[in-house]
Specification:
Layout lengths: L2 H23 L4 H21 L5 H15 L10
Helix pairs in contact: 1-2, 1-3, 2-3
């Protein structure tokens, strides 16, 4: 993986940690923040994949890392 792509994904990981903090600080907005977090993360990974900047294995690796921080959204589509 190119260093600039890895740095970008590290930034997304940091952002997901901030989203997670918001989910814990504002439990009444947890579902909203979590769904928005998953949407953003999915968009980033899909874009990098479509541009050929990450492999399938890297996509899966980062998807797992980011989803671990955000947790399973309402409806449970990660665990299900």
């Amino acid at each position: 993986m190119r260093p600039d792509v890895e740095a970008e994904l590290d930034g997304v990981l940091s952002w997901t940690r901030s989203v997670r903090s918001g989910m814990e600080e504002f439990p009444d907005r947890r579902d909203e923040l979590q769904m928005q977090g998953h949407a953003y993360v999915g968009g980033v990974l899909t874009t990098l994949d479509h541009l050929g900047l990450i492999t399938d294995a890297e996509y899966t690796h980062w998807q797992d890392r980011l989803n671990e921080v955000l947790g399973d959204p309402p409806g449970g589509w990660i665990a299900g």
